Amino acid sequence: MVDPKRVLSYEDMLKIIHQPEKVIIDVRSPEEVKSTGKIPSSINIPLNNVQDALITMSEEEFKKQFQRPKPSSSDELIFYCQSGRRSSEALDKALKLGYTKSKTYLGSWNDWSSKQK
Predict the structure, then answer these.
(1) Which residues of the chain are modeled with pLDDT < 50?
(2) Catalytic hit among 81, 90, 91, 106
(3) So which domain of life are we looking at (predicted)?
(4) Is 81 an annotated catalytic residue?
């Protein structure tokens, strides 16, 4: 069960997409993202690559691949996926890696896409 203080709503996300210091991470596969689209300003790091991207990847590699600076452990990371399951897993990984300000958008793509009419 995800700590309610770490869960964001659609309304929260509408504000966050305009806050470039926050890092929105889509943990779906690149194929899923291609077929549906993504939340504005998000970057795609599939769930299985989250730990490598945050810990192993160099600053240069991260910036080259995602066109933004690699987040530090004090940055706010927001994870989403299709329905919230993988984003909760990613949140758990990030917290264990020391990214203490991490959160999840539990409604994820299903919620976002249903409200973006």
Answers:
(1) none
(2) 81
(3) Eukaryota
(4) yes
